[in-house]
Amino acid sequence: MIDHDSDGIDARRRHPVLRAADALSTLCGWIAAAMIVASVMITCQMIFVRSVLNASTIWQTEAVVYLMVAATLLGLPYVQRLRGHVSVDLLPLALPRKMRRWLIALTLAAGIVVIAIMLYYGTELWHLAMSRNWKSDTVWGVPLWIPYLAMPVGFVIYLIQLCVDLFAVLAGLDPKLSLEEHH
Description:
Blueprint lengths: L3 H11 L1 H36 L8 H23 L7 H5 L2 H35 L13 H4 L1 H22 L12
Helix pairs in contact: 2-3, 2-7, 3-7, 5-7
C-alpha cells in the first residue's frame, strides 16, 4: 500500500520553488529563534545591571521589545511551513475530500489577501519611518526604520509561503495541507 503522506512530501521536496520557499521560511525560523535567544540574554544582562550593579539601563528594554516583535514577524513563515498555526479541523474533516481541498484553498487565498494588505501598510510605515528619519522617543533614539523593517520582510516571506502552500494544495503536492486521509 502506498503511503500518500510520504509521496506528497517527496513530491513537495522535489519541486524547486516549493523547496526554495521552505528553505527561506526555515531560515526565517532560525533568525527568529536567534532573536528570541538574544532578547533573553539582553534581559538577563539588564537584570544584572539593575540588581547587582544598581545602575540604570538605557537600551535593553527597547531592544528586547524590538527583537521580540521582529522574531514574531519573521517567525510567521516558519510556523506556516510547519503548519503550526491553530486550526479547527471539524468542518474540513466533515467534508468530502474534494470540498475539503477547496475549503483549504479558499482559506489560504483569504490569508494571502489579508497578508498582502498588511504587507502594503507595513511597507508604507517602514518607508515613512525611513524617509522622515523617525527615531524612537527614548535616550537610545533608534532609527525606527530598522525595527520596522521586520514588517515588510516578515510579511513578504509569509506571503510567499502562503502562495506556495496554495499552489501545493491545488497541485496535490501536499496532502498534509489538504487533510487527505492517510493510509
